[in-house]
Design goal:
single chain, 8-stranded mixed beta sheet, 3-stranded antiparallel beta sheet, 36% strand, globular
């Protein structure tokens, strides 16, 4: 495995989403996500996959579900039934973990990098990003983005690597 990158946008209270919806609209964060993940395999839970209108272009989707009968009509999607099986599908290449909360928790021990967009606000949510333990993770880059006419909240891009 080359590298396993967890990529997420999470609020100050680690909120990711509610009712399978994102809690904010940050176009620059979407652009960054697209730029970083395009051309790679992305691992997600079934509910995250189903929250998209259609699969994200130019990426192979690896969907983790406990449902052994689950299927999708879309090409470029691989259905698996465990995190380990998902990671096997991406051997020797960079793979991105894109959610949701449970998948991040299960994948953290395999991750080499975290690309986190920290949204500077707290939200009510039902899905959360795991707490980042600074004994395990080292902050290596940060870039602040103030709110503006297109972005309702301030946010900071944070890159962590495993110590």
């Amino acid at each position: 495995m080359n590298s396993v990158v967890m990529i997420a946008a999470a609020a100050e209270n680690n909120a990711l989403g509610k009712d399978n919806e994102l809690l904010w609209h940050l176009p620059d964060d979407f652009k960054r996500f697209k730029k970083i993940t395009t051309g790679h395999k992305i691992i997600m839970g079934r509910k995250t996959f189903e929250s998209f209108p259609k699969p994200l272009p130019n990426r192979t989707h690896i969907i983790i579900t406990r449902d052994k009968t689950y299927n999708t009509v879309f090409d470029n999607c691989i259905i698996v039934h465990s995190v380990e099986e998902a990671l096997e599908q991406a051997q020797n290449e960079t793979v991105f973990i894109i959610g949701g909360g449970e998948i991040y928790k299960q994948c953290e021990k395999f991750a080499t990098t975290i690309e986190l967009t920290r949204v500077h606000e707290s939200f009510e949510a039902d899905a959360f990003f795991p707490e980042i333990n600074l004994n395990t993770w080292k902050l290596i880059a940060e870039e602040y983005h103030p709110k503006d006419e297109k972005h309702k909240y301030d946010f900071t891009y944070l890159t962590y690597t495993k110590r």
